[in-house]
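Subject: Interface between my chains keeps coming out wrong

I've been trying for a while to get a sensible model of this assembly. When I model each chain on its own everything looks fine, but I need the whole thing in one frame so I can look at the contacts. Pasting all components below, labels as-is. Any help appreciated, I'm running out of ideas.
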Amino acid sequence: MIKFPDLLDKKILITGASRGIGREIAKSLASQGAHVLFNHRGDEAKANELKAEFEKIGGKASPLHFDVTNGQQIKTAVDAFVKEHGNIEGLVNNAGISKDQLLMRLKEEDLNSVIDTNLKGAILVTQALSRGFMRTPGASIVNVSSVVGLMGNPGQCAYSASKAGLIGFTKTVAKELAAKKVRANAICPGFIQTDMTDKLDEKVKENYLGVIPLKEFGKTDDVSNLVCFLLSNASAYITGEVIKIDGGLYI
Ligand code: NAP
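Reply #2:
Try treating it as a single job with all components included. I did that and got this:
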C-alpha cells in the first residue's frame, strides 16, 4: 500500500461504508491513520462494530446517523460532529443503489429511489459539508460514479442517468470551490466484485468478463487505492477530472 502521509488525522466522511467499495475505502483510510467518518441508518450495533473494525486498523472512526436521502438528518449529524471536532476535510460520496430494468418496464418509485440515493444524496451531503470546505484549503471530494454513466447500458437507465448526473455535479463543484483550493473529482469503476455485482446472473458476469481487456473483475482495493490518492495532496493539481477504473472495459 502506498502511504499518503498528509491523510494522517484528516477527518474524511465516506457514505455507504457498511459494505463493498465504501467499506474498503474506509479501511484503507484507517490504515493511512485518517479519522474515518461513516454514516449508518439506525443500526447502532453494526455501526459500533464498524467503528471498532476501522479503529483496530488505525486512526479514529466516528459513526454519523443519516440516510443520504434525508437532508435534515445529514445536516443535524454533520453539524453536531463539526461542533465537537472541527471541519471535515474530505468526502467520498459512495452510497449507491441499482434497480435494473429496461426503460419500458421502469417503475416510477424505482426511478425516484435511484436518483434520490445516487445523485440527490451526493448533492445533499456535499452541500452540508460545503461551508466547512470553504474554510479548509486542501479539502478533497471524490464522487463514485460508474462507467455506465459514461457509456450507458441497456437495463440501467435510471442508474446510468444518476451516475452521469454525478459527473456534471462534480465538474460544477470543482469550478465553484476551486478558488478556495477545494477539489472535486469523479471516479468511474467498471465491474467491481461486491454485493451489488454478486447478485447479477452468471451469464451477465461471463459476458462482462468477455469484454474486459484485462480479463478480470476489479477488486474493492483497486478502487480504494485510487480514492486515497485523490483525497491526498499527491493529487493536489487534479480537479474536475473523471477517472475510469475498469480494466479497459470502456476504451
Ligand atoms: P453495495 O455493496 O451495494 O453497498 C452500498 C452501500 O451504500 C451500503 O453501505 C449501503 O448501506 C449504502 N447505502 C445505500 N443506500 C443508502 C442510503 N439511502 N443512505 C445511506 N447509505 C446508503 O455497493 P458497492 O458495489 O460497494 O458500490 C458502492 C458505490 O460504487 C455505489 O455508488 C455504486 O453505484 C458504485 N459502483 C459500483 C460498481 C460495482 O461494480 N460494484 C461499479 C461502478 C460503480 P446499507 O448497508 O445501510 O444498505
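Reply #3:
Confirming on my end. The chain has a mean pLDDT of 97.
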